[in-house]
Amino acid sequence: MNPAVDFIGVSHTYARGRVHVEALKEVTLSIARGEMVAVMGPSGSGKSTLLSVAGGLERATAGIVRVDGVELRGKDAAALAQLRRKKVGYVFQNYNVLPSLTAVENVALPLELDGVAQRKARRQALQALRDVDLARIWSGGMKRDLDHVASERGIVGVVPRATRGLHMDRTEFVRLEDLPNIGPAIAAKLRRIDIEAPADLIGRDPYALFDELTARTGERHDPCLLDVFISATRFMGGAPAKPWWKYTTERKAKLRALQFGTTEGPRGLGGS
Ligand SMILES: Nc1ncnc2c1ncn2[C@@H]1O[C@H](COP(=O)(O)OP(=O)(O)OP(=O)(O)O)[C@@H](O)[C@H]1O
Ligand SMILES: [Mg+2]
Q1: CA atoms of 53 and 63, how far apart (whole Å)
Q2: Distance, CA 262 to ligand 2 centroid (Å)?
Q3: Is residue 29 within a helix (H) or strand (E), and if so which, with residue range?
Q4: Ligand 1: residue whose CA is nearest its atom 6
Q5: Which residue in 108, 150, 172, 213 has the fewest CB atoms around it within 10 Å?
Q6: Is residue 264 very low, low, confident or very high in pLDDT (cuts 50, 70, 90)?
Q7: For residue 48, which atom of ligand 1 is closest to its CA?
């Protein structure tokens, strides 16, 4: 079997004007598939350069570099990019996730670039995040979890193959209207707040969604709609399907608590 990474007499010299820095000098190294290797050394010793050359981000100035048996020399930029997408996962010190995309979109991106259909890529990305217990950031704000997401981008090229055929659970639900309690009218309301697909509900706070809808439409909505939002977000989080009115009591108690700072609330102010 080919080594995962093979360096034979690899050198890399950075040239900046007249200054040349010899970052790698005749490195010979072979890393087997499945082998775990730590490259250690003082700052400036060439660790990052070694990783960059191994993934074709930098071209070796001398020597032979092979990744999974494929020699990198002579490959054009597009071929190197494709090789990285399929075979290399980097976790950069500065993350390099795309801040305008959600966590799921970041994880799905390399798959989409690889020609996987958008929905399927999204499903696989969700599964990959779930597999490593990053469920909470499935669709939510991601900034505080950038490091985790970065590592997901690193593994997603590999994970979908491993997870193919596994039970996809809720991620099988593709249309909002496929969800319990949601018909076309409520689906339309959800779309007003950019919830386009069931996956967009994962990890979302139904109360915040309800507030957002109120703000967007400038209308007061029936609080029962909040019960539907609770049922839908819970369902996408793995809870069993239940009729929306099963959440009414909980919703009333929660709203009272938010209003009065207690789950009891003053008598007589319960309301609907
Ligand atoms: N783009 C560049 N242009 C010129 N010189 C560079 C460039 N990148 C790195 N170097 C130089 O190459 C040498 C190796 O740098 P490299 O970043 O690979 O080290 P490192 O082991 O990753 O260091 P650190 O632990 O600080 O990340 C250093 O002398 C560095 O200054
Ligand atoms: Mg470095």
Answers
A1: 11
A2: 52
A3: strand 19-31
A4: 14
A5: 172
A6: very low
A7: 22
